[in-house]
Design brief:
The complex is a heterodimer of chains A (about 450) and B (about 190).
Chain A lengths: L4 H14 L13 H6 L16 H23 L7 H4 L7 H5 L19 E6 L6 E6 L5 E3 L13 E8 L3 E9 L11 E8 L7 E6 L7 H4 L5 E3 L5 E3 L4 E5 L5 E5 L4 E6 L5 E6 H6 L8 E5 L4 E3 L6 E4 L7 E4 L5 E4 L23 E5 L5 E5 L6 E6 L5 E6 L1 E2 L4 E3 L2 E8 L7 E9 L2 E5 L3
Antiparallel strand pairs in A: 1-2, 2-3, 4-5, 5-6, 6-7, 8-9, 9-10, 10-11, 12-13, 13-14, 14-15, 16-17, 17-18, 19-20, 20-21, 21-22, 23-25, 24-25, 25-26, 26-27
Chain B lengths: L1 H7 L2 H23 L2 H17 L10 H27 L16 H12 L2 H11 L5 H8 L3 H19 L10 H6 L5
Helix pairs in contact in B: 2-3, 2-4, 2-6, 3-4, 5-8, 6-8, 7-8
Classes of the chains: A alpha+beta (about 450), B mainly alpha (about 190).
Chain lengths: ~450, ~190
C-alpha cells in the first residue's frame, strides 16, 4: 500500500533529521565504552587506528549505514533462515525492558483515592507532554481512559503539573514559569484543566488562578496540590482561598480567614483541614504543626494534636487520618479530637523512620505501608495490630484502589545501582499477589 | 552456538563491530530520544550492555539485529530514567521542554512537534518503520511484542500525528490545549 501524505512527510522529516546526525563517538577508541572495558581487555585493533578525517568519516558512516540497514533487513526478514525470534537473544541485559508493558510505573504520578473501589492511573508522557490514563479496578479489570492533550510551555519556561482523579474526571494543575518548582514569584500563571473520564470528552480549562501559597514543596507537598473531594471534584491545597474544582469544570472560590491555607479535604465536603500560612512558610523538616478543622460556614475547631501527616479519609471512618509525631495514624473526629482512644487506630509496625504510610482502606481495617531502601517493600497490614499479611517488592507510585482486603496499585521496582523500572499493576491481598500487565 | 560469540565479539572485533554499526545505532537512539545528549548516552549504554552480555548472544542470528534490539531498549530505558529523574527532582511534577524554534519549515516543525508528543515506544515503532523501513515482524521482534500490536501501535501513532498535524501549524506555545480543542480560555 502506498504511503499517505502523513507517512511521506514522516519519512522525509525523519531522514532529514537523522541522516545528518553523526553522534559524538564514532570512533571506538575514543568511546566511554572502550575505556570502560579496557581494563579487562587487550588494547584492541580499533584503538590503534588513526581518527579519520571528517569527510572520510562521513562517507564511512554513510556506507556503514547502508550496509547495516541492509544486514538488518536481511536478518529480520521473517523468512530469513533462523527466523526473527530465534535469531535474537532472549536474555540480553535490557531484555526485561522489551518484555515490559508500555505503561511505565515510574511515570504514574497520581491515582484517585479509591473511594469508589476503582482508580484512575495517570501516565504522563515523556517530557510531560501527552498523558495517558487507565481506569483500574481492584477486581483486576482495567480499561484505557482519556488521553490528556499536551501542554506546551512558553519559550524558555517550564510547565509544572500535578494530576488527580476523582474517578469521574481527571484534573490537572499546570504552573507556567521560569523556576524549577513552580512555586516562585516568576510564575506567570497557573491553570486548572479538567478532563472527563468518558470516552471522547474534551478537556476544559477551568480557570487561571493566583492563590497558591509560596511554601517549600519539601515541607508541604507530599500529596500534591489537587486532592479529590468526597462528593466529586477537587480542592486545591496550599492555597490562600478555598478553590474547589467541580466535576462540570467550574471553579468554586471562597475566601479563607487571614493566615489560613487549605491542607486537605475531609470526608464531609463542608469541612476542611487548614493550617497557618506563616507556619507553612517557616516550618522545616516536617516538624509537627498545628492544624484546624474549618467549615465553609466559618467555624474553626482546633485539632487536638500536632500533626505530621494527613490522609483524606474515605467516608467511613472519621473526617481524615492524622499522623501524630511521625508514628501511628488516628482518625480525626468531627470535634477535632484525634486518638488514641478512638477505634481504628492504624498501628505502625516498624519504627517510624522505617515506614511510609501509603494508604488506609475505606473501613480503616487495612493499611498499606512502604519500607524505604534501595529495594523497597510494600506491605499490606492489619490496621489494628500492624501485622503484615502480604508484601511485594517495589513501591506504589500513586494511591490505591481498595476492595475489602485487596488493594490494587501501579508499582515501580528499584534495584541497586539501576534506575526505576516498570512493575506493572499489582493486586495485593491476604490471599497473595497478582501482577497485571497493561498493553 | 558458541561460534558467533567467540568469533564476532572478541575485543578486537567488537571495536570494528562498533564502528560499523554506530551510525545507525546512534541515529536510531536519536530518533527515539529526540535529544542528542541522551541519544549519545543511551547508545553508549547499549554498546556497554552488548559488550557485557555478548556471551549470551547465541550467534544464530545476525548481530546487527541483536544490537538493534539492545539500542531500542536502551533508548526506551533512557527516556524512562530521564522521566524518573525529573519526577523525583520536581517532586511529582513534570517539565515540558520548550518547543523547537528557528528557521525550519513550518510543516517540518509541526511534524517534529508531533513526534515529540509521542511516547517513546510509539516513537520507536515509527522510527523502525519509517526510518529503517523494517517490516512489522522485524519491529515486533525488536520490541518483543506481536506483529498485531505493532500494527496497532503504528495506527495509534499515525492517528495521533494526523490529529496534531491537522492543526496546520506548530502548537502555539502555552496555548496548545486551547488550540487543539477550541475551548474557551479564561
Amino acid at each position: 500500500m502506498a504511503d499517505d501524505p502523513t507517512e511521506l512527510r514522516l519519512r522525509s522529516v525523519l531522514r532529514a533529521e537523522l541522516d545528518g546526525f553523526a553522534g559524538a563517538h564514532p570512533v571506538w577508541a575514543a568511546t566511554p565504552v572502550a575505556r570502560a572495558v579496557a581494563p579487562t581487555s587487550r588494547t584492541g585493533r580499533a584503538a590503534q587506528r588513526a581518527i579519520p578525517g571528517r569527510s572520510v568519516m562521513g562517507m564511512a558512516a554513510a556506507v556503514a549505514s547502508l550496509l547495516f540497514a541492509a544486514a538488518l533487513l536481511l536478518a529480520l526478514r521473517p523468512d530469513h533462515q533462523g527466523g526473527v525470534a530465534s535469531g535474537l537473544p532472549t536474555a540480553v541485559g535490557t531484555a526485561s525492558d522489551a518484555a515490559a508493558p508500555p505503561v511505565i510505573a515510574g511515570q504514574l504520578l497520581d491515582v484517585d483515592r479509591g473511594t469508589t473501589g476503582s482508580a484512575v492511573v495517570i501516565q504522563p508522557g515523556i517530557d510531560g507532554a501527552s498523558t495517558r490514563s487507565w481506569l483500574i479496578s481492584p477486581t483486576g479489570s482495567w480499561r484505557e481512559g482519556p488521553e490528556l492533550p499536551r501542554i506546551s510551555a512558553p519559550q524558555d519556561a517550564t510547565v509544572t503539573q500535578t494530576w488527580a482523579s476523582d474517578g469521574r474526571t481527571i484534573a490537572r494543575l499546570a504552573a507556567f514559569g521560569t523556576t524549577r518548582y513552580g512555586d516562585g514569584n516568576a510564575i506567570a500563571n497557573r491553570e486548572i484543566w479538567v478532563t472527563p473520564v468518558d470516552a471522547g470528552a474534551l478537556s476544559r480549562k477551568v480557570a487561571t488562578i493566583d492563590d497558591l501559597i509560596d511554601a517549600p514543596a519539601s515541607v508541604w507537598d507530599p500529596a500534591g496540590r489537587l486532592l479529590a473531594m468526597p462528593d466529586g471534584g477537587y480542592v486545591v491545597t496550599k492555597a490562600s482561598s478555598l478553590l474547589i474544582v467541580r466535576p462540570d469544570g467550574t471553579l468554586d472560590r471562597q475566601v479563607l480567614p487571614a493566615d489560613r491555607m487549605i491542607i486537605a479535604p475531609t470526608s464531609d465536603p463542608r469541612w476542611f483541614i487548614v493550617a497557618s500560612v506563616a507556619g507553612a512558610r517557616t516550618d522545616t523538616a516536617h516538624a509537627p504543626y498545628r492544624a484546624m478543622l474549618w467549615s465553609r460556614e466559618g467555624r474553626e475547631l482546633p485539632i487536638a494534636a500536632d500533626v505530621t501527616g494527613v490522609l483524606p479519609s474515605t467516608h467511613q471512618v472519621g473526617r481524615a487520618w492524622i499522623q501524630r509525631d511521625h508514628g501511628d495514624w488516628y482518625p480525626l473526629d468531627a470535634s477535632g479530637l484525634v486518638g488514641p482512644g478512638l477505634p481504628n487506630t492504624v498501628i505502625s509496625p516498624l519504627p517510624p523512620e522505617g515506614t511510609t504510610m501509603v494508604g488506609i482502606d475505606p473501613t480503616g481495617t487495612w493499611a498499606l505501608l512502604g519500607t524505604p531502601g534501595v529495594v523497597g517493600q510494600t506491605m499490606l497490614v492489619a490496621a489494628g495490630t500492624g501485622g503484615a499479611v502480604a508484601d511485594v517488592q517495589g513501591a506504589p507510585t500513586g494511591t490505591l484502589a481498595w476492595l475489602g482486603d485487596v488493594v490494587m496499585f501501579a508499582r515501580v521496582l528499584r534495584a541497586s545501582g539501576a534506575s526505576d523500572t516498570d512493575g506493572g499493576l499489582v493486586r495485593l491481598g491476604a490471599e497473595g499477589v497478582e501482577q497485571i500487565g497493561l498493553p | 552456538m558458541t561460534k558467533g560469540v567467540t568469533d564476532r565479539f572478541a575485543i578486537d572485533d567488537f571495536g570494528a563491530f562498533y564502528e560499523r554499526t554506530y551510525p545507525v545505532a546512534v541515529r536510531t537512539a536519536m530518533g527515539i530520544c529526540r535529544d542528542a545528549a541522551l541519544a549519545d548516552e543511551v547508545t553508549q549504554d547499549a554498546y556497554l550492555s552488548a559488550w557485557r552480555t555478548r556471551d549470551r548472544y547465541r550467534g544464530d542470528g545476525h548481530p546487527d539485529a541483536w544490537l538493534m534490539r539492545i539500542v531500542v531498549n536502551s533508548a526506551l530505558s533512557g527516556l524512562r530514567r530521564r522521566r524518573v529523574r525529573r519526577a523525583e527532582s520536581l517532586d511529582e511534577t513534570a517539565h515540558v521542554r520548550p518547543g523547537p524554534h528557528g528557521t525550519d519549515a513550518a510543516d517540518s516543525m509541526a511534524m517534529r512537534h508531533a513526534l515529540d508528543a509521542l511516547d517513546g515506544r510509539h516513537r520507536a515503532v515509527v522510527v523502525l518503520r519509517y526510518y529503517h523501513d523494517l517490516e512489522y515482524a522485524a519491529i515486533a521482534s525488536i520490541l518483543g511484542t506481536s506483529t498485531g500490536n505493532v500494527g496497532s501501535m503504528l495506527s495509534r501513532a499515525l492517528a495521533r500525528l494526523r490529529v496534531d498535524l491537522s492543526h496546520d501549524e506548530p502548537p502555539r506555545r502555552g496555548r496548545l490545549e486551547a488550540s487543539h480543542h477550541g475551548r474557551r480560555s479564561d
